[in-house]
Amino acid sequence: MPSRREKKVRAWLLTMGFTLSYGAMFSKIWRVHKLSTKAKTDHKRKYSWKLYFMIGMLLLLDVLILSAWQIIDPLQRKMEVFPLEDPEFKEEDIKIEPQLEHCESENNAVWLGILYGYKGLLLIFGIFLAYETRSVKIKHLNDSRLVGMSIYNVVVLCLITAPVTLVISSQTDATYAFVSLAIIVCSFLSMALIFVPKITELIRRPRERVDCRTLTDTITSREEEDRQQRLQRENEELRRQIMEREEQIRQATLALQERSAMRNLQLASTMGSGDRVRITVGQYTDLLAPKDITNDPTSDSGFITGTSMARSSRSDFEFSESYL
């Protein structure tokens, strides 16, 4: 029959063992979530001592709660007596009085409620962080999803084990077997989910072994990946528009060059065909003038001398009006 000291030790071991196992996964998933949400603004190096500090704070909280429990309302041995039963062999004139020893405090339900509430909040928050970081990737080895799956495993088993142990608390053998089996299965699955993929990867690629200390915290969240893809699409669209503008500019440049070449050819052909060139006077066009026009510096006349002008289509009267 276990003593009161052994009962206290069991309470401490169960509470702090849960904190050490689940707290490590919780601190890891919390760190991943923090890095994913601050990857754009916070580029400082993240140190591992912060993880140990978080686990230490969780352990300190457990120590405070358990210490207050043991000091204010310590555990006591209580005997539960059941009705008398007849022995298996009724030849003897005896009765059997079943007794069950409990190690409880006066307000045992209150203290259990405090512990279960505190651990339950950690479980709920862990599920939230695991869901938020389900698409987060870490360079080289990505174990954030595996840690999240381990958290799901712990939560499911805790939700099953805690109420069942309260129901079957009067059956010591069944309680011990159920709690022990739940602890073994939970620990085995968590370690298998986290370490088996890493060991398999190291076995498959022995030449590419990487020290765990060299793993960087460079992560890319789903939002950042979507943003990068969106920026890449916008970049491709802008590049396509730039290429279209460059093609339009090239075509416009070619058109201007062709037009300039045609104008030069027309001017050259006109000047080479005779002694007359086409000029424009005011609003009248298609006027022909000699190729060589000379001015008489000794003349006071405002008209050009030595020039014979002809028109191709308009009358002499209209031409004279333009000079009046």
From TrEMBL:
GO cellular component: G protein-coupled receptor heterodimeric complex
Molecular function as annotated in GO: G protein-coupled GABA receptor activity
InterPro entries per UniProt: GPCR3_GABA-B (IPR002455), GPCR_3_C (IPR017978)
Coiled coil: 221-255
Residues annotated as domain G-protein coupled receptors family 3 profile: 1-218
The entry's keywords: Coiled coil, G-protein coupled receptor, Glycoprotein, Membrane, Receptor, Transducer, Transmembrane, Transmembrane helix
GO annotation, biological process: gamma-aminobutyric acid signaling pathway
Region feature Disordered, mapped onto this chain: 304-324
Domain of life, per lineage: Eukaryota
Location in the cell: Membrane
UniProt KW Transcription regulation keyword: no
Short name of any one Pfam family annotated for the protein: 7tm_3
Membrane-spanning residues: 12-30, 51-72, 109-131, 151-168, 174-196
Principal location: membrane
Topological category with respect to the lipid bilayer: Multi-pass membrane protein
Name of the protein: G-protein coupled receptors family 3 profile domain-containing protein
Gene source species: Larinioides sclopetarius
Upper lineage: Eukaryota, Metazoa, Ecdysozoa, Arthropoda, Chelicerata
